[in-house]
Known about the structure:
- Residues 3-140 form the Nucleoside diphosphate kinase-like domain.
- This protein has seven helices and four strands, in the order βααβααβααβα.
- It has helices at residues 12-16, 20-29, 44-50, 60-67, 82-90, 103-107, 122-132; strands spanning 3-10, 33-40, 72-80, 116-118.
- 39% of the residues lie in helices and 20% in strands.
- By secondary structure, the protein is of the alpha+beta class.
- It has a four-stranded antiparallel sheet with strand order 2-3-1-4, sandwiched between helices.
- Bound molecules: ribavirin triphosphate and magnesium ion.
- The site of ribavirin triphosphate has 10 residues, from β4.
Amino acid sequence: MAVTRTFSIIKPDATRRNITGKVTTMLEDAGLRVVACKRLHLTKAQAEGFYAVHAERPFFADLVAFMTSGPVVVQVLEGEDAVALNRKVMGATNPDNADAGTIRKELAESIEANTVHGSDSEENAAIEIAYFFKPEEVVG
Ligand code: RTP
Ligand code: MG
């Protein structure tokens, strides 16, 4: 399996609870390496653009409000088959359905305030990385 990259967001529920280090440790312990990182407060336009694929979903307005409710930490993660590895350590979207030991099972508050985002394909990872980082900001 090749070393690849994925995109991660540590969501506002985690920055509010001051557990970004704990989340990052769980990512690192799973075999992922942080090769780019910054903390920012998403604008409404940034959050709407990022989640445009969900624009027609009933939870879209709530999701945008949540994602702009506090700072986030955006990261590029590198590792063996990084997209799948990250999704595995994140756990299911709804923490009630997530496996024990996953970030969402251990730390998420709800299906919305679920602590982390992770790209769902290599194609989307590349799009999402480019949404937040210039090539020279990613240092492997
Ligand atoms: P993500 O995109 O954040 O990595 O999460 P995901 O793939 O597991 O879930 P997705 O279906 O892409 O949904 C994006 C985010 O929207 C919120 N959500 N709320 N209220 C609801 O029913 C609901 N469903 C999804 C979550 O924050 C989810 O991560
Ligand atoms: Mg998703």
